[in-house]
Write a structure and sequence with these properties.
5-stranded mixed sheet, alpha+beta, 10 helices
Amino acid sequence: MKTEPFEAAKQLISRDYPNCLIAVLGGSAGRGEHNEQSDLDIVLIDDSVEDFNRKTIESFGWVVELFFLTTSGYREQFDAGVMAGNPTLQRILAEGRVIHSRPEGEKIREEAQNDLDYGPLPYTSFDIDVARYAVTEFMMDLKGSDKRVEMWFIAQKLTTLLCEFILRANQHWTGEGKTLYRLVSAFNSSIAADLEDALERLYLYDDREALIELVPRLLEPYGGPHLIGYEE
């Protein structure tokens, strides 16, 4: 039987990284929403670990993803997340469950929260045009595809780009996988419901029309689909 997630994380940190400045359990386990297939995502700041940034291990019955930061390098990794609009490390540090901390680590945790509160860099008109163009390209690919498996793959990329664009154009952070959907749903539950319906129609009934009709409607407030006249 597996050890309870937080207790497993606590024992791991106490055993292997007792001198870390801070260690935080994030993801579904940190929120108490885990299941048997979940892994443990732990971000820790430890200046004695400099040979790698990430390591996956098995500990106390769990697959554990360890993300390592140092006091000299954490800001660079924070900034990379800010520039990408996807501050994963800040999210885990600020929103996860603290396993172990010292005053120096708490200061960095506060900095992570400040990043989240400040929000992503605003999209410029150029950024909006680039994103509209990418979304439009995949929409046209979906229209022209005559193979159902290809449609599935196109729809996957199209949906990701569309969700990222909607969030960034409205100065919201993005995410990956299920996190991306949750962020869109939190921003606008109606858009999330329309996307769910369109994807269900495509994957279950090979009906692409709902998604093809939805894309221009969601792009309309930002200038609509964009192909002709695009310059880079």
